[in-house]
């Protein structure tokens, strides 16, 4: 069964850049039917879709985060990544990576990692 | 405030049925079949329970069903069981600008 392994720092300073990577355990990253996405959940708040990427490199971003977000994909290492710049405390959240089977439907999720933005 | 509106809480006794609503607009829930529901136990990864309004992924019990009318989608859990107690989120495709929206989540309590 597919596994998504998320890695990255748990603590980042304000104004700095967050980089997270999600490793895909099987060959589905090469399947053109899927997109690969990032979702976050601030403490006590709702899920927020960040964006997604297709293996062709086509990206889609939440318009509220678009100026600060970059999602990339590394086929050779079966992983995709999130980069979020100019961090503030409002970016403190549990970050998830997920496989998107169609128009924002995420059928597999990584375990999630808490990222705290604090000095 | 979330883009899709869900009741903050719902409850039912074991064996009963409960329905959770998810209200959007004609630009999201009302315009696309890509409405999904996720079960989230705190500390775990969310789990897809329904997609395309009413389709169940393999392994999801048929006690979980979905429907949509206009701008409101609904998740119904029949024959409530203790393990159904969790947070439930709806999600919807919202077009080429907003892409994906989520609801605020509903905490389902099995009494």
Keywords:
heterodimer; A: 119 residues; mainly beta; 7-stranded mixed beta sheet; 4-stranded antiparallel beta sheet; globular; B: 111 residues; 6-stranded mixed beta sheet
Describe this protein's structure.
The complex is a heterodimer of chains A (119) and B (111). With 119 residues, chain A is mainly beta. Helix content of chain A is 0%, strand content 52%. Chain A has no helices and eleven strands. In chain A, strand 5 and strand 6 (59-61) form a beta hairpin. Chain B is mainly beta and 111 residues long. Chain B contains one helix and nine strands, in the order E-E-E-E-E-E-E-H-E-E. Chain B has one helix spanning 95-98; strands spanning 9-12, 18-23, 35-40, 47-50, 64-69, 72-77, 86-93, 100-102, 106-110. In chain B, strands 1, 3, 4, 7, 8 and 9 form a six-stranded mixed beta sheet that branches. The model of chain B has no long low-confidence stretch (mean pLDDT 95). Chain A binds chain B through residues 39, 46-49, 51-52, 60-63, 96, 101-112, and chain B through 2, 32, 34, 36, 38, 44-48, 51-52, 57, 89, 91-93, 97-105.
């Amino acid at each position: 069964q597919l596994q998504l392994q998320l890695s990255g720092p748990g603590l980042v300073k304000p104004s700095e850049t967050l980089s997270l990577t999600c490793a895909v355990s099987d060959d589905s990253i090469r399947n053109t039917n899927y997109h690969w996405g990032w979702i976050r959940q601030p403490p006590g708040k709702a899920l927020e879709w960040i964006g997604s990427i297709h293996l062709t490199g086509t990206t889609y971003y939440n318009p509220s985060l678009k100026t600060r977000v970059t999602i990339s994909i590394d086929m050779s290492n079966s992983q995709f990544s999130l980069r979020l710049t100019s961090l503030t405390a409002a970016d403190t959240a549990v970050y998830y990576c997920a496989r998107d089977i169609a128009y924002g439907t995420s059928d597999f999720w990584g375990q999630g990692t808490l990222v705290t933005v604090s000095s | 405030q979330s883009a899709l509106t869900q009741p903050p809480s719902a409850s039912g006794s074991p064996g009963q049925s409960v329905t959770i609503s998810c209200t959007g607009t004609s630009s999201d829930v009302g315009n696309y079949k890509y409405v999904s529901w996720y079960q989230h136990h705190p500390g775990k990864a969310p789990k897809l329970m329904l997609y395309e309004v009413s389709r169940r992924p393999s392994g999801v019990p048929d006690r979980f069903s979905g429907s949509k009318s206009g701008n409101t989608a609904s998740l119904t859990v029949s024959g409530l069981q203790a393990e159904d107690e969790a947070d439930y989120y709806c999600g919807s495709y919202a077009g080429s600008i907003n892409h994906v929206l989520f609801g605020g989540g509903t905490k389902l309590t099995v009494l």
